[in-house]
Each structure stands twice: as C-alpha cells, then as structure tokens.
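Study this chain:
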Amino acid sequence: METRPLRTLLEGIKHKLLQGTDEIPVTGICMDSRKVTEGNLFICISGYQSDGHDFIPKALEAGATSLVVEKDVDVPDNITVVKVKDGRVALALLSAAWYEHPSKDMCVIGLTGTKGKTTTAHMIKKILEEAGKKVGMIGTNGAFIGDEKVAVEIKNTTPESFDLQHILRIMKDEGCSHVVMEVSSQGLKLNRVLGIDFDYGAFLNLSPDHISENEHKTFEEYKECKMMLFNMVKKSVIFLDNEHSADFLKVAPNPTTVSLKSEADYSVSDIHNLWDGSMFGVEFLLHRPDRTSETIRVAMPGYFNAENAAIACALTSLEGVPANVQDAALKKVSVKGRTQIIPEALSVACMVIDYAHNAFSSECVLQMLREYHPKRLIALFGCGGNRAVARRIGMGEVAGRMADLSVITMDNPRFESMADINKGIIEGIEKNNGKYICIDDRKDAIYYVMDHAEPGDIIALLGKGHETYQEIEGKRYDFSEEEVILQWLREHKG
C-alpha cells in the first residue's frame, strides 16, 4: 500500500498542527466518510447542506488516522489533527500533492463561459488530435482520453478537486500531452481547480445563469467567479463579442483576442451556412495576426458554432497548429447531443440531435435550422415526466410556431403517463395551430420520420441529446437516438 508522510502533503499549505505528528503515514485522502479506509486523511468541509465535521466519528471508525479540520474538535489523542482556514482549499492542494501535480507535465487548457464550453472543448480536442497529439478532455459529458471514457465517476462539469487530480494523473500516465477542460463557475467558486497548472484560459461569453441561493446569489458574483480562472493561467484567449468581454480582458494575462464583429487578433468574415451532400454546417473566413486568411469549414451548423470554431482555431494556433490541420479537423468534428449531425443519414434527410429540452433552447435550435431554408422542418420531441407542466406547454408553443410538423413522442416519462405529458405539449402546439402527430414509442417515431422524409427536409430530434437511456417508472432502459438512426439506415440502405 502506497503511503506518504502527512508533512510532505502539507508543504505550501498554511496550517496549524493541533495534535499528533505530521510524520504520520497517509494511505489516501478522502472527504466522504463512507469511502474512508485504514490510514486515510479525512478532510472536513463545512458545506451548504452538511458539515464534514459531523462525520468525524464515522471516519475514525472506518480507519482514518488523521484529520484536516476548519474548527476545533475533540478526538482521541492518537489522531493527528491539522487545522486550516478553508477545507476546500486544503482538499484541492492536498489532492494535487497526493497525485504529484500531474498538470505540470501537460498543457492544460481551461474554458469558461455560460454557453459553448462543451462544443469548443470538443473542437480544440479534435484539432489537437488531428495534429498528432494525445488529448484528454474533462467536462459535461465526462472525462475522455481519445474516445475512451476515463473510469472515474464524476457528477459535475468540473469534478471535485480530488477526482479532478485523479483524472489528470490517469491522463498523464496514459501519455496525454494536452488536456482541455470545461471550468464552471461553481468549480471556481468551490476551489475545485485550485492546484492545477493552467497554460491557457479562454473566455467564451457571459449571460445571466446559475443565479440562485444555492449557486450564485447575484450576477456580479457569477461573473467574478468566472474571472477567477484568469488568475491561474499563463496565456488567455478572449472572445470580444460579449458585453462583458472588456472586464475579462482587464484581468487576462497575455491575451489573444477573437471576434466575428470587430478588429481582433483573429477575426472572422464571410460566414455562410453550408449544406451539401456530404456536410451540414457552417463556413467562414478566418483572418490571422500575420494577415493571412483561409476558409474554415465546420461540420456543425449555426453562427454560434462559427464563434466556437474561431476560438478553437485561435487557441490551437498558439500551440503551433497550422490552418490546414484546423480545417481538416473541424470538417469532422461532432459533439454528441449538441446540434449533432448524423452524416450517414444526409442522403435521406438532415437529422439533427440536440439536448434542447425547454422552450428557449428549442427556439434557438429551430430558428437556426430555419436559416438553412429546409423543404420541411420537422420537430420530434417529448417532455420529461414529473416536471413542470409549463415547460411542456412552452415547448409545444415553440414547435407549433416554428416547425412544419411536430412528432410528439417519449422523452423520460418517469412515473407519469404519456397521455398526461402529451396533453400539455398539444395544448401549446394548438395555440399556434401547429400540425402534429403522436407516436409514443420514440424508436417508432424516428422510423416514421425517416420513412416519410423527403429530400431537403431537416428533422430535429430534441430533448434527449447525449443521453443513452429512457427513464420509465424508476428504471433506465438503453436508448440511443444515434443508434436508432443508424439501425434504420442499415435496414433500408444495406
């Protein structure tokens, strides 16, 4: 069993030794008393919903021999106790030390913004891989090395610091030269990324979101948390086309700027929708600091994906990736469930899978697809059971107004009947006299739209996105829209 003296883990952390010895060997560090094993260091954090200090007896019973605390505690004399000001800060720095600071040996890229982090991360990863790099990625969809998912369970866009350092260590050991990660405002606020040696930080955009008692109490706090990333990076990429960009530019070290609207180090012009037999996406002219320009083609549709791609090109250019490699990569890029195109189906219809599951996000996707002037725009969607009825009505209203046909089907009904769920959706559709049909089984619904597709149709499959299951009466059943589409093609196209 690997052990480290507590003293070596505490180097660089301001602390006070209350009792015991810092020479005690540590077999691992933990913040969850249910996961403690013999010889562990248990870190107590005063959280929003629970206080880690309350679980000290359980941690000691499970075998913890040392504690990091934020307040005085009464424990047996044979237990080493170290007091710190902030348990979360200590957890992050101890985690980095336990895994021997893996980020120092890789180029780490952090992305922050309200929207677009997942897509931009995939674009950067794809470009670097096209350039021959081995790349790790951490974000909303999980942690990956290449196409392989890392076997560490994570529950947040930016994982807890211990899990994050564990993942980084795996990526280092697997030979990754680069890591691109989404950095959430909560990840910054809760010090999850403290101790990571970031080479680059990129600002994408900022708009009101995550404002609540349990997240950020004000928009100003939300913005300030986002800005924290730029205290940790060596170089920055700042997207200028946001009303808050100037605030980030003030704190960004060594900034490179990107814009679709004004002068910048990397600027964009001549944005066009692209739809032919082999690609559905967007293309644009990218102008570089050396005054060269080239056309970039992206296999994802919409103006916002031109923004994401321009940021990805600017950042990877700083890593020495040439334009032809960027273009080759972006022609093949795909993000599961985020305006995901199924290229194999383009000869039948343009099939777009997107996670949009409320009125606002659905309207954004359908409005963007309308700009491609389809023969018909068909929306296939449902709504989650045991959720707000207003959301169903809202999605129905949007589809009734913007789609030529709505195919109402199953999402995650949970413990609610399809009839009750569909009733709300239909109420919304009928407010705009929209056309609709109901096919409860989602596979049958997808087969129906593909059976009846006509050249020039765009079919938007909304709500499920990257999910590979359906939740019905407390059970999860395997279900992948992408696989259903490919199965239809195998049956009908050989």
Summary: Residues 237 and 300 are 22 Å apart (CA to CA).
